[in-house]
Amino acid sequence: MYPNTLLISRDTRESNTPVYLNVPETWDSYIEPERDYAPHGSYYLKIINVPDLELVYSLTIPASLSPYTFYINNKYIGYYGKRTLNPKTPSESARPMTYHFSLQPGENELIISGFHMNEHVPGGLTSSLTFGDSYSLEKLKWYDIIVQIIVCAFIVFYFLCGILLFAIGINRSTIAYFLLSIVSVFITVILSNDKLLLWHVKIDWLSATKIWHFACVMALFWFILFFSELTRKYVKAKILNIAALCCFAYLIFIAVMPVSFIYYTKFIFYALLIGSSMMLAMFMYKIAFRKHKGYVLLLLAATAVIHHWLFLITNYLVAKPYPFDLLIAITALLAFWFIDYFYQSSTSKQTAIQLQQEMYRKDDFLANTSQELRTPLQHMLSITQSLLAKKEQHDLRLLVTIGQHMSFMLDSLLDLIHLKEQSITLQMKPVDVKHIATSVSDILKLTINSKPIELIVDLPEDLPPVLADENRLLQVFINLLHNAIKFTDEGSITIHAQTTGSMLSLSITDTGIGIEQSKQASIFEPYEQMNNTAHVGLGLGLSISKEIIELHGGSIRVISSIGEGATFIFSLPIARGLTIKRSESTTEQSQALSKYIFLQNDLSEIEQEIAASATEQLSVANHASILLVDADPLSLQVLLKALTTEFYKIDTATNGVDALAKIQERNFDLVISDTTLPQLSGYELAKHIRQQFSISELPILFLTTRQQSEDIRLAFLNGANDYVKKPIEYIELKSRVDALIQVKQSSEERLRFEAAWLQAQIQPHFFFNTLNAIISLYGEDNEKMEELLFAFNDYLQMSFNFENVDLLVPLDYELKLVRSYMAIEQIRFGDRIQMIWDIPNDVAFSVPPLVLQTLVENAVRHGILNRPEGGTIILRITEHSEHYLIEIIDNGIGFNTRLIDKKDSVGLFNTEQRLKQLFGVTLTIDSVVGKGTTISFPVPKKYN
């Protein structure tokens, strides 16, 4: 080798001194660095050719030297890369190149003149040259290339399979990691060995180096995530996450740092590759030794992974054919994955069979339970009905209604079981659909008295009869119409029909809340309900109706949009050429409807009794007032019975909107609400209440069937004071009700005593100033002194009056206190205080004690007396249609209303709190700096 020399001919060789190297070997120790030139040198090789051999020879120059120029016997053969002496010129990324040539008999001179443009790697021919006849060399070359192409083809095949599995939706996270690791491996393959990518794409050395290192670490990163996801059932090791995090950090490092830093930290690169490979192999061996399904494949994959990365590292030093180990590792892991997937699928099928058996056992249990419950339940109903003519008739009727409700649920459970077992026999005959629909509609109208719903039967007179079991058809109409009523708060429910070929198509359309598109396919499943906690039940009606209709040879579907109602459309076969026996039909229909009529009549009576009971309770005076809110009339009746013995004043509401309206109309000491309400849920009701009342001003007790901690936390977050779980225990309910009522009454009592205490603590300067005014008038104006003494006496007596702790006092009593106070102040300050009383003579109502006196005193002290000339106060009362408006107006100094905080004034804050508790109103303050202030509040007439 000739250092720092570019050989072209024999002359240049003879003028320089050579050194002898064993290729592969770096030339760095022989090259003297030059400032203006890149390191360069020439390799010289003498080849002696046997004269009788006339072969075409080939030489493969590895990628370690670039750029270079190749000569044979001073004849130019070829070159690779940009030939330049400028050390700053970036070189192309080299790839192995093969050159073909002929040799002359005897001695032949081979010269390779090259540059070292990459300062980060050893210079010179650091990889072996391959020399031989063209046929053998090409055969070896294409063997390596074909092996790499085969590996790439398999990778592409696996990638396409992964895309297909991802589209199907099988373990998408695992598939995604696999696909990303496959792409990264593909990049490393086409940039390794023969560097297939560089055959078609020109990439400079810096970019190719970064891409290759990035792809290697990226493949490892996604492979770790893929392995972690694949084996998470078997291994839960945090070290896998740590390894993935380290790979991710090094990926960022490779992306942002120069290539020189990548070579300086090459040990990190090798540590990640070897360490992570060993770790993955260790976990594979660990899983394999547990003898899981496909453990032999894991052993094979682990061994192949270790071999691949070791080969990748040693391949820089030793030239070897490209191994199949990476392909073997991927194939083994995929095989393990599929074996595990099919094993899990088999396990899932067995689990499904077991669940199906459990469902059958559950159905048997329900059937047996229903039969066992029916007998004692029927005995209970019979005995109770026999006592209805005697004492406690109302309570016994309530028991009968509850029993009938239970019996109805048991019938539904039995029907569902019989339908599943296909043990129901239909009594098919011609049935008048219009007669059935009209009869059911007339009965159900009794249940919608409390809802503004119109039930319309829009069926033509010439409607053909259908071939059906009359009792089962009756059951279908009851279920569908009852469902429509339950989910419709106002509007209409309409029954239509039209003939379609041999089928009669019937539709029931409501204007209710509607059904989500995603729920429409599942609402016909047993026990399926919409996510609407305001309407509870077993969820069997629609399922039973669907089964019955399909037994008749028809079908049922639903069309609905949220907020626009729902339409249930079902079809039944028309009875061609058959007539209806009216008398028989009427008798069977009466028997089928008897139980349902009894139940609905009783529910209607219960609703009326609830209203009557609530009205009776409201007549009880001087007791705590409670609002009961529950959508179930039976639950309301039970609550009324539980609380009647305590003589509370009780009002009821069946939905959140009505409850809010009642709270605005009158004062309550406690709200007891179910969490599942129509129109406005219990949680939403509590939110609205808390916007007006604090937890001490109006306590809320929730009744809930949900006992999860999340539901309880939600109740408290929405403003509940306490909760009681259903079914309710009387002692627990009474204890919690009493405790919460005491909270409310204690809050009211505190405000009343606080107001009285504030009034009783007459400010010392006011007391002494009044006495000084009396003394100063003695002997000079005895008449005015006497007037002041009488006014001061009245003021003191009323300030210490025990009526000040009452909830309400007559308006005249409050005005008398204000007149006494103003008389004292007018005598003391003379013309500085003017008072105008704008009050109608015939007005009479009650107000909280000390309210007017506090507001008038505030106007005097903080309003007109702060002006040297004083001012005028107007006390005005005007009557409106629903309330009296009280205004205290002064032309004092005024203030900026944006800066006022009512809590800074104890008197104003106390006054407003009592007005809010008693009347649900607040103080309105309007003030202009320098012009005066107006404080007003309404007194609703409904409280007087």
Distance from N terminus to C terminus (CA atoms, Å) equals 118 Å
In terms of DSSP E residues, the strand content is: 15-25%
By DSSP (H or I, 4+ residues per run), the number of helices equals 24
- Indicate the overall shape: flat
Q: Overall mean pLDDT score?
A: 74
The tally of structural domains comes to 6
Radius of gyration: 48 Å
Order the strands across the largest sheet as they lie in space: 1-2-7-4-5
Largest sheet: 5 strands, antiparallel
> Low-confidence parts lasting 5 or more residues at pLDDT below 50?
316-321, 583-592, 594-599, 613-622, 758-765
- Give the % helix: 40-55%
| Count of β-strands | 27
SS content category = alpha+beta
Explain what the structure shows.
The structure is a single chain. Helix 3 (172-190) packs antiparallel against helix 4 (205-230), helix 4 packs parallel to helix 7 (266-289) and helix 22 (811-829) runs parallel beside helix 23. The protein has 6 domains: 2-128, Galactose-binding domain-like (Jelly Rolls), CATH 2.60.120; 141-347; 360-424; 425-599, Heat Shock Protein 90, CATH 3.30.565; 620-746, Rossmann fold (3-Layer(aba) Sandwich), CATH 3.40.50; 762-943, Heat Shock Protein 90. Helices cover 50% and strands 17% of the residues. Strand 16 (625-629), helix 15 and strand 17 (649-653) form a beta-alpha-beta unit. It has 944 residues and is α+β, with helices and mostly antiparallel strands. The protein is flat. The strands form 7 sheets. It has a 5-stranded antiparallel β-sheet, with no helix packed on it. It starts with a strand and ends with a strand. Residues 316-321, 583-592, 594-599, 613-622 and 758-765 have low confidence and may be disordered.
